[in-house]
Design goal:
It is globular, with a radius of gyration of 29 Å. By secondary structure, it is mainly beta. The chain has 9 helices and 32 strands. The strands form 3 sheets. Strands 20-21-22-23-24-25-26-27-28-29-30-31-32 form a 13-stranded antiparallel beta sheet, with no helix packed on it. A 12-stranded antiparallel beta barrel has the order 1-2-3-4-5-6-7-9-10-11-12-13. Strands 18-17-16-15-14-19 form a 6-stranded mixed beta sheet. Helix content is about 10%, strand content about 45%. It has 3 domains: about 280 residues, monomeric porin ompg (Porin), CATH 2.40.160.40; about 120 residues, GMP Synthetase, Chain A, domain 3 (2-Layer Sandwich), CATH 3.30.300; about 270 residues, no CATH class. This is YjbH domain-containing protein. It comes from Shewanella electrica. Keywords: Signal.
């Protein structure tokens, strides 16, 4: 009888039609109220285009949803979500005032089967994992496109399946599958991934729906059978439901904006807005960079000072030394502009071609980082000439650039930079934020940071950053959560409010290349805004491999709250053994750090990120230590996501600079690492297997 409901719904939602072939690809995925890809309240099995990112806002009384949704892989979709429960207070009035309760969570969905001619797209999803679990749910869904219609049917456990249409089919496998743990109100249990609740409970709910792409492209209509009856809401917040049918529409005025309107529960008008971008496709292709030098028929008179300046201006390659022998020119220097190293190599080779005779057959460029040689690229004169002058057969495409581990130059030194020392400075804005706290949903600080650095040599520097507070609302920050550990990070309010001017960092750093694959750095000073001390890092980075090993060790002491020159009493030794690996799929990078953290706890951190072809990096991390969830407190363990965007992806000029954004659900004292200024792994990333492959294409 219960399965007959599912069959009846399927029959209603799957009318027979074979005359919609011309519409087949016009149905595009839209977002539901929770910010994931779906109908209104319910999900679908659809995925967004690869690299898609959206910011979503929707209101369905008494809930306001805010979410950021990502499509990092073709078969994985994820959301970071906040929910404001408008008819519940966050906490005591003396702390939170009239702020409504805020809940945060993470949603993920994985495609199990890609849609075929006959078979539907099938996906499994997990809602509200790693949070309080107020809206936790799991589901299996199938979606099939028929012309302008996109049909979905699925089964949900937990929140999305609270209508409890059928007995849980997994109960027949094990009696334990009939028991589902709910939120018990203990904040020390929040933040965990509740594996023991997945697909559990005495019953499950049926959901179904259809999206209709109208003949007017910007408009999509929706009809949904809700799997929730809203009579088992968290916080005893049950809502009346006059109908399980929800209806809605999505209007797309542009490719980057969705406007949503729906009528839900038979009594509630809901609306929402979605802003889209794509981390792969939405980039600035036009660049105002200087044109690549044309190959001259006769070499110009050599003026090595002018050649060095031209290499910097046109190729972003700033030479330190130039050598020449009877068949090669070797240039040692730093790439300071072009993230696209293939373009940089061509630009540099064209410049050298125009000042060398026919007898010079190769141009070698040794790229350095802080005085340490990283990679060496070689461009053959004849191949460069053939490519520029189109002297190749149609199917002939010889490799222009070969990349090797740097070797000692052979030949006479014909030029050297006048001085390896000097001052440099810069200014940039800074932004610090805390989201979702009891004192206020968004606490922020905007500051101006000035940097000053003096290089004694290519591999020895002293530099720092001074931060000037411009404005903030951290005066609202009153709640210091209890901690069972040394307060290594939870004094953040004191560090942000004690002084309007502070030294973010001020350290001396010495870099050294110890051999063909070994790199090191030693540093001392105010290492970050909370800690000062001494430390060092050693990295083994074999050329052209997809792995690397490293170790760092640091003796640090906690700084005074005013971020000037004093220290507090707390001190510790922290350090990690690190393993880096580039996975063979989707340019995925992994990092595992094992060691001792600032609170003297021991454990491991796991980081995974994807780098898209345009340089955008999207990733997540989690840290697990020997601190129990009770000792750790709210959040259970340290975790977060991050996004790193290269400036040149969205600007008209090439640049190596990046903007970084991070989200951590809650800052606690367990599993906290020292914020080191430099990472040898990223300083030597051009030695990686993937980077070499891209460069040689």
């Amino acid at each position: 009888m219960q399965f007959s409901k599912l069959l009846t719904l399927t029959g209603l939602l799957l009318p027979c039609s074979t005359s919609w072939g011309a519409w087949y690809d016009q149905v595009t995925p839209t977002r539901n109220d929770f910010g994931g890809i779906g109908l209104m309240q319910m999900p679908t099995a659809r995925m967004a285009p690869e690299g898609d990112m959206s910011i979503n806002y929707s209101r369905s009384n008494p809930y306001i949803f805010g979410a950021v949704n990502f499509q990092p892989l073709p078969w994985m979709n994820a959301s970071i979500r906040y929910v404001s429960v408008t008819n519940r207070l966050y906490g005591p009035e003396e702390l939170s005032g009239d702020q409504s309760y805020k809940d945060k969570g993470i949603d993920v969905k994985f495609r199990l089967l890609e849609e075929g001619y006959y078979l539907p797209e099938v996906a499994v999803g997990f809602q509200d994992i790693g949070g309080t679990g107020l809206f936790s749910s799991e589901y299996l869904g199938a979606t099939k496109r028929v012309g302008p219609l996109d049909f979905t049917v699925g089964l949900a456990w937990g929140y999305l399946g609270n209508a409890r249409d059928i007995d849980n089919p997994f109960c027949s496998v094990s009696d334990s599958m009939c028991n589902r743990d709910g939120y018990d109100g203990n904040i020390n249990n929040t933040g965990k991934v509740s594996f023991n609740s997945f697909f559990r409970g005495e019953s499950a709910g049926i959901f179904a729906g259809v999206e209709y792409q109208t003949p007017w492209d910007p408009l999509t209509l929706k009809l949904e059978w809700d799997g929730n009856d809203y009579q088992h809401q968290p916080q005893n917040n049950n809502q009346p439901q006059d109908s399980r049918f929800n209806v809605g529409m999505v209007l797309k005025p542009t490719d980057y904006l969705d406007l949503k309107l729906s009528y839900e529960r038979g009594n509630t008008l809901s609306f929402g807005v979605t802003l889209h971008t794509n981390l792969i496709n939405d980039v600035m292709l036009y660049k105002k960079d200087p044109p690549v030098s044309k190959l001259a028929k006769q070499p110009a008179e050599k003026d090595w000072d002018e050649v060095a300046k031209d290499l910097g201006r046109n190729a972003g390659f700033y030479p330190r030394k130039i050598y020449q022998n009877n068949r090669q020119v070797i240039v040692e220097g730093v790439q300071g502009k072009y993230r696209d190293r293939q373009q940089a190599d061509v630009r540099a080779a064209a410049i050298m071609y125009n000042v060398t005779e026919l007898g010079t057959r190769e141009y070698r460029f040794v790229e350095e980082s802080a005085g340490m040689p990283v990679v060496e690229t070689t461009v053959e004169r004849k191949t460069l000439e053939d490519k520029f002058n189109y002297n190749l057969d149609f199917n002939d495409n010889p490799q222009l650039v070969s990349v090797d581990s740097p070797s000692d130059p052979i030949g006479k030194q014909v030029w050297q930079r006048e001085s390896t020392s000097g001052w440099s400075y810069g200014f940039n804005p800074g932004f610090t934020q805390s989201i979702g706290g009891p004192d206020g949903f968004l606490l922020y600080q905007v500051n101006l940071r000035g940097s000053l650095k003096y290089n004694f040599s290519d591999n020895f520097e002293i530099g720092g950053n001074l931060a000037l507070n411009l404005f903030n609302n951290f005066d609202k920050f009153k709640y210091d959560a209890p901690s069972n550990l040394p307060r290594v990070r939870t004094y953040i309010r004191e560090y942000l409010t004690e002084s309007d001017v502070g030294i973010s960092d001020l350290q001396a750093t010495w870099f050294n290349h110890l051999g063909s694959s070994w790199y090191s750095q030693v540093y001392a000073g105010y290492l970050e805004y909370m800690y000062g001390g001494v430390g060092g890092e050693l990295l083994y980075r074999p050329f052209g491999k997809d792995y690397a090993f490293g170790v760092d060790l640091n003796a640090v002491k906690q700084r005074d709250f005013n971020q000037l020159f004093g220290f507090r009493d707390y001190e510790t030794v922290t350090g990690h053994f690190s393993f880096y690996y580039q996975l063979p799929w989707y340019n995925l990078h992994t990092q595992i750090d094992v060691g001792r953290y600032l609170a003297k706890d021991k454990g491991a951190s796991f980081t995974l990120y994807r780098e898209f072809d345009n340089g955008v990096r999207l990733g997540a991390y989690a840290t697990f230590t020997d601190v129990s969830s009770e000792e750790y407190g709210e959040g259970s363990f340290t975790k977060g996501v991050f996004l790193s965007i290269p400036f040149d992806a969205f600007s008209t000029s090439s640049s190596l600079s990046r903007a970084g954004f991070g989200w951590t659900p809650l800052t606690r004292d367990g599993g906290q690492k020292l914020g080191r200024k430099y990472s040898l792994y990223y300083m030597t990333e051009q030695r990686g297997k993937h980077e070499i492959k891209v460069r040689e294409q």
